[in-house]
Amino acid sequence: MTNRAALLWTALLLSGCGLGGDQNPPDLDISAAYRAQPALAEAAWPDATWWRGFRSPDLDDLIQTARVRNFDLEAAAAVVRQADAQVRIAGAALLPSVTGSSIASWQHAGLGTGSGGSRARGGGSNASIDLHSYTLGLNVAYELDFWGRNRAAQQSAVAAAVASRFDQQTVALTVVTSVASTWFTALGLADRLAVAHRNLADAEQTLGVVRGRFAAGTAGALEVAQQEALAASVRATIPTFANQLEQSLIGLGILTGQTPASITVRPGSLTNLALPIVSPGLPSSLLVRRPDVASAEALLAARGFDIKVARAAFFPSIQLTGSAGFQAAALNALVSPGGALMSLAAGLTAPLFDGGTLRGQLELAEGQYALVLANYRKAVVQAFTDVDNALTAWRYTSEQEALQRVAVETARRAATIARAQMMAGTVDIIIVLTAETTLFNAEDNLALVRLARIQALLNLYKAMGGGWVRSEGAVLDQFPGLDPGVLPGAVALPVTGGFK
Length: 500
Fold this sequence. Notes:
By secondary structure, the chain is α+β, with helices and mostly antiparallel strands.
């Protein structure tokens, strides 16, 4: 047996040795129910266009514009393209590399004879020879992937590419909810501004009555000053609300990919919004509806494959090379049988001493896996936390809004009675001042509570994945030719997903 054959046979035997690197699925602490919701609550998941449930045409238009023009979404799409390119780069190592070569050479040789080198007539002669050579060939190189290093590198790239798609969905969800949150904030500020204008009108009306009584001598200067102070205080809140409202509208520009001057929409009122109810059901169902959790799983799979790559680097690599071509002194004889050239070779490269580089690379890969594993577990717990926080906020803000409505009605009734008695001259102006101040604060707080409740519902939509769902066991449509089981992942990693 030749040395080359013995080398190949040994490599084939060693190829049966497993390198490990397949990481066990992590243990996840998944509760049977949410803290803020009964275990038997029926699930009501949002659909892909959940924001239409608020019945705000302006919001629909803003979100549609953002989905087309938002800069973060554009950047996320570019990241996906880069990840796909890395898959192609990593997969190239599994195929032979073929290069072509073409060489044309020319040599000139001069021959001279004669006495003393003299070129005198009759004293000698000169001659020269031109040599031409043409070579045409192909060179092939291929690394035998006995240890699965190249395959693992490709699988790692595929997992990272899938993670980039999940990240893209996370960005899309963030953009949509940010547009909705900014729009709802603008509506809330419009409500607070309307409350301020309405209460200012009431305060100025009362001030006119007090000034009339002062002119008639039935009211003092202190009473006039106190009512003037109330009107001035309410008036001073108007620029603040207007400023915040305008800045919210300006903020919609960057979210929708437009300059602030392009935002012409004007907010209405939070009271005009519908509030569709959603419910997450069981916590276990949440994990297939959060793109950030899916991305963490995909990255965990990628880092697992990186460990296999690092372990395979300890073993020899076998490179097969070959070349074939033709060589001739004339172009018309270039591909003649007599000018054929061919060579085959196999080379083995094995690490003997590297100063600890390979060991360091393996430890680095294992450390990166541990980091991503911790991030994955955190993403899972964060998903449950987000839902519980949103459910809790929705529950208590709903209760608070109902109570605040009662407070507003009571304050409005008290202010109406106080003004009527003031007109009849049966109560002091201080009673009216107190009643009007209480009404203004109650109405302003109602606008704040209403906004907090709607924001809690919006956060619940976001915590539940915003209508996104991944398809378990789907084929890698983005990467034709790959086995669907190429990504084991942490918990049966899905490889496709999108909005329902």
